[in-house]
Design brief:
Blueprint: H1 15-34, E1 39-44, E2 51-52, E3 58-59, H2 61-75, E4 81-88, H3 91-101, E5 108-112, H4 115-126, E6 131-135, H5 145-155, E7 160-166, H6 168-175, H7 186-197, H8 212-231, E8 234-241, E9 247-255, H9 258-285, H10 292-296, H11 302-324, E10 326-328, H12 329-336, H13 346-358, E11 362-364, E12 375-378
Parallel strand pairs: 1-4, 1-6, 4-5, 6-7
Antiparallel strand pairs: 2-3, 7-9, 8-9, 10-12, 11-12
Length: about 375
């Protein structure tokens, strides 16, 4: 029998998109909050070995964060410090983690143990400093609701955000034991899902007879709603897919401030564009063939599709703006980010507002330019 492949021997091709979200969002989180706080924390709750080996070595999430912490410290451009806490229970992985992060010095703190075991210590260390928690376990064991609830409580008094790998495939498989009668293992699997969700109410929305995409959506919607309620904000999601388009899991972003939602929307737009380009390239390399539907109904050119999207965004902006009469450019983006999540970035909002100015539907406080704090009057 061949030896089992260690998870960190190679990074799965789909994992790059999860890491790309972190790589793009952490600088935004740290930079925005670092303008008001002297220290910002990043907590990697399931840090692993820190790096992926194999013929194409790649940094794991701890090193992505450590590199940013190093850049912030050495640049001299920012007045805040980014500190990283990594948690890993596996002894072998922890030693590799310690080795891979040794060069970054005191900016990095590695804790041996499980996230739930070390959570009280972590909360004591970070105090009321803004903190982004990255929860990326194998499956979902270790991020039971009792731990999430403690972070939700913290969010009421300190800036707290989470990026969660919600492995809906694993959750669905375990939830599927719900109707397995006379099976000794069934109770443990069902209990595991209930501990993750923090309630047994998920059983009321789960229907094993439904197609898997429907079940996945129901479970993800339920968990996302629970998170949003507990944190008093919103939960955004991004489906991490293989190169062939199959969903592997969802990355959930939990925050209770509209600016965070807007910034994550920008990240998702760019990550999705990169994913689409990579997928298209792979399909071309594999000899992609056009279907009859694609042949007779080709997609509009990118520029044409973007122009149409800007016009629809302009309609939404005007509808929203007419209700209040005036709003800043930043307020408009915050308000519309949930509706346009991952589909529009700042340049699209600016182009849409300029179109409304051209139509005589918006008056600006100054003749040229539209910035974050620019007041716009709707007529």
């Amino acid at each position: 029998m061949p030896a089992p492949v260690d998870f960190f021997d190679a990074r799965r091709e789909w994992s790059q998109w999860k890491h790309e979200i972190l790589r793009r969002y952490l600088p935004k989180f740290a930079g925005i909050l670092g303008s008001a706080y002297p220290v910002v924390y990043y907590v990697d709750c399931f840090a692993g070995a820190g790096t992926y080996k194999g013929h194409q070595p790649a940094p794991g999430s701890p090193l992505i964060a450590a590199e940013l912490a190093k850049t912030v410290a050495l640049s001299g451009k920012w007045s805040y410090e980014l500190r990283c806490i990594n948690v890993e229970p596996n002894g072998s992985y922890f030693q590799q983690l310690a080795n891979s992060t040794a060069e970054y010095g005191s900016r990095i703190q590695n804790l041996h143990g499980s996230f739930s075991e070390r959570l009280s210590e972590i909360l004591a260390v970070i105090g009321n400093s803004p903190t982004l928690f990255f929860l990326d376990p194998f499956g979902y064991k270790g991020m039971e609701w009792r731990a999430i609830k403690r972070l939700a409580v913290r969010s009421k008094v300190a800036k707290t955000e989470m990026l969660i790998n919600f492995n809906v495939g694993k959750v669905d498989r375990d939830a599927g034991w719900l109707d397995s009668y006379n099976q000794p293992a069934a109770a443990a699997f069902v209990q595991g899902v209930s501990e993750l969700m923090g309630t047994t109410d998920w059983q009321n929305v789960y229907d094993e007879s439904q197609p898997k995409p429907t079940r996945d959506r129901a479970l993800t919607d339920f968990y996302s709603h629970r998170l949003a309620q507990s944190f008093g904000g919103g939960t955004a999601r991004y489906a991490v897919r293989t190169a062939k388009g199959a969903v592997k899991y969802f990355v959930l972003h939990v925050a209770n401030h509209p600016r965070a939602y807007r910034e994550m929307s920008d990240v998702i737009y760019r990550v999705e564009a990169d994913y689409g380009a990579a997928k298209e390239l792979l399909e071309l390399q594999r000899g992609k063939q056009l279907s009859m539907d694609t042949f007779f109904n080709p997609a509009p050119p990118p520029d044409e599709a973007e122009a149409d999207s800007i016009l629809r965004l302009a309609d939404d902006i005007y509808e929203l703006g007419k209700k209040g009469g005036v709003a800043t450019f930043g307020q408009l983006q915050d308000a519309l980010a949930p509706r346009w999540f991952g589909r529009a970035i700042e340049k699209h909002y600016r182009a849409a507002c300029k179109e409304l100015v051209r139509q005589g539907k918006i008056e600006r406080e100054k003749e040229t330019g539209i910035g974050e704090g620019t007041w716009l009057k709707f007529v």
